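User: Sequence in, structure out. Go.
Assistant: Echoing your sequence, followed by the structure tokens.
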Amino acid sequence: MSSMDRVVLVTGGSGFVGRHLVALLRSQGYSRVVAPRRADFDLLREKEIQQMLVLHRPDIVIHLAATVGGIWANRHNPGSFLYQNLIMVAQLIEACRRFGVAKYVQVGTVCSYPKYTPVPFREEALWDGYPEETNAPYGLAKKLLIVQLQAYRDQYGFNGVNVLPVNLYGPGDNFDLQTSHVIPALIRKCVAARERKESTLVVWGSGAATREFLYVEDAARGILLAAERLETSEPVNLGSGEEIRIADLVRLIAQKTHFEGEIHFDTTQPDGQPRRCLDISRARQLLGFAQQTTFSEGLDRTISWYLSQKHTSVAA
């Protein structure tokens, strides 16, 4: 059987990253891609995971399904974020091992890194401290799954691999202000403020924190490269290697969305992790991966997508 004829099962395939990954797989010649939805199989239920594997008989499983959100969502749902992300994946990995899945790709999170990780974040630093408090339950759940895959490789020879994407953005992102991440939230706020002719835009935090961003199509390509080339359970960072201050990000998005008012930083609200920027040398070495979409270009595409969806919704 050629690699293109193998059954590739993508959990979370209808989500933000999943839609781009499924499209990429099919465009690259993978002819047997399946992306079951939660309505079909609830990954919190062990029996339904087993039913999913029996029905689709996958050779490769790429796990994207997760319970995620920005700072607000993490602060209000720490218990469910920990429980759901831990239980669904721990059960899925064990079921894949028992079923004999040839390759399992775990998509982790940059939130697993300690709060004060030296920049740029090297994969070895994952174990040097506790994550930033607002998203620690989510980050710790994902970190334990790295350990599970390493333990399963050691004991069972299970071929599970890990990639750790930095903050992602792009068309199809979640723009709900209560659950979205920073870029879609800022785009929506700037567009709304401009349309309402408001003179001030209020942004959470001091603006001093930094973040790194990776365009979603580049992330999908990195995940596919991991499925094709990665043969170690040691985690691999996926990022751009470019760091930007939140204050500069806000001004850039305001410029691109034509909001000309003042920006006020609400310092009573948390910044989250003080700095975030990855060392991407391992991805370059093991996967041949590097971003292809510049940050400016990616923002333009994301803003255009949001405006097109917004106008379509209004017209309907």
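User: And one key feature?
Assistant: The radius of gyration is 20 Å.
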